[in-house]
Amino acid sequence: PEYRLVAYESLDSTNEEAKRLARDEGAGHGTLVWASRQTAGRGRRGRPWASPEGNVYASLILRPGCMPAQAAQLSFATAGALADALQPLLPEAVCRCKWPNDVLLDDRKVAGILLESETDASGTVDWLVVGVGINVQHYPPDAEFPATSLREECARLDEPRAVLVRFAQAFATWYEVWKTEGFERIREGWLETARGVGGPITVRLAHSTLEGVFADLDTDGALLLEMENGERRRITAGDVFFPG
Ligand code: BTN
Predict the structure, then answer these.
(1) Ligand 1 neighbour 98 (Cβ under 6 A)
(2) pLDDT block averages, 10 residues each, the chain of length 244
(3) Third-level CATH fold of 4-193
(4) Which domain of life is it from (predicted)?
(5) Which of 42, 130, 239 best tests ligand 1's pocket when mutated (most atoms within 8 Å of CB)?
(6) What is the ipTM score, two decimals?
(7) Measured between alpha carbons, how far is 140 from 133 in angstroms, rounded to an integer?
(8) Which end of the chain is less congested by CB atoms within 10 angstroms, N or C?
(9) How far is CA 118 from each of CA 1, 65, 100, 175, rounded to the nearest angstrom?
């Protein structure tokens, strides 16, 4: 996308602002909403996202002109782009993607992604908002899944804005691959940096918990969990935990 940066000191949530701009003002493909802090940052599944100054909070408006199932694939492109953007800053740590769309540094969460979209009457995605939160200087100490920040892990610390620019550059590459070659290439790229593929995981669903081996990423982005009895379950929503 051709980016247009819209910067704020403070917002309720960059995702909310991006949705307002897309819905009410017809903001175009590539509009990148960035705030130094958020007063009502949100994570997946309605969880709050603590947003003090010093981290990256940004939401990208895309108008990919595709169906919702295709648009959802972009969360994997976003995670891959984040890993590509952050790894060069981290000579000592390994940056990995965690299903469905988190980014880890040495097994602690350093970034999260929140996709929201609206579909028009014909069933095509009118706009998609890709929200990313990157822990640059701060991280929540009491998160349910252990977290970290770039400051905690790396010698060289970039300003939040510079980290955002790195992400935007990496995302442009992944988006182009998605657009021209489709999800299969994104899936392969994501699997290369993914944490835990082929190993045991615990998946927490809304009302139950499953254990098994993370066998593969399905062609639509679902997690394929191989159970002890050999049965394969397709997981489309849940929280993944690793043993040890
Ligand atoms: C998660 O891991 O649960 C997703 C976190 C997404 C946080 C980002 S910060 C920028 C954007 N605005 C929000 O309110 N949330 C996303």
Answers:
(1) no
(2) 97 98 98 98 93 97 96 97 95 93 94 97 97 96 90 81 97 98 97 96 95 95 95 95 90
(3) BirA Bifunctional Protein; domain 2 (3.30.930)
(4) Bacteria
(5) 42
(6) 0.99
(7) 12
(8) C
(9) 19, 11, 20, 19
